[in-house]
Amino acid sequence: MAKPLDPLELLRTARAASQQVQELITKSTMPPAQRRALVEGVSRMVLPGEQLQAMIDLADAFGPPKTQIAEIQKVLIEQRAQLETMLAELDKIETSVDRLAESSEQIAALQAPLRAMLERRQGGSVDTEDE
Fold first, then answer.
1. pTM for this structure?
2. Cα–Cα nearest to 38, from 49, 54, 27
3. Which residues have a Cβ under 8 Å from the Cβ of 44 and sit 6 or more positions away?
4. Which tens digit of pLDDT belongs to each residue from 80-118?
5. Position 131 in a domain
6. Which contiguous run of DSSP H or E holds residue 26?
7. Which residues of 74-102 are buried (b: 16+ CB within 10 A; e: fewer)?
8. Last residue of a domain, one of 44, 63, 82
9. How far is CA 88 from CA 49, 79, 85, in A?
10. Structural domains of the chain, count
11. What are the start-end ranges of the E strands in the chain?
12. Burial of 38 by CB count in 10 Å (0-12 exposed, 13-18 middle, 19+ buried)?
């Protein structure tokens, strides 16, 4: 013979399941506000008459994260500005290095006659450093 359903036992089972879900949620790595909304939503879902509102509240809590997306966009804009500043600085450094290379070649060209004269006077080669 089948045992009749005991409403109090069903409620206890539902509450136990709710507590287990809450423990799992607490251990997860959700942001605190979402974790709190999920725990409250799950708790309210087992109460008679609260299921529909609990599901609506949960859907609202896990809707599009507008503020998080806006914050990410703000950070990206700041990083882009930093990168543009760094790129401008890199261009300046590159220009300086190019000028330094040109100056180095000009100095070497100006020193060439002096080196040749020294070589002739000494009758051999003059020690030169690699440019």
1. 0.39
2. 54
3. 50, 51, 53, 54, 57
4. 999 999 999 999 999 999 999 999 999 999 999 998 998
5. no
6. helix 7-27
7. eeeeeeeeeeeeeeeeeeeeeeeeeeeee
8. 63
9. 63, 14, 5
10. 2
11. none
12. buried
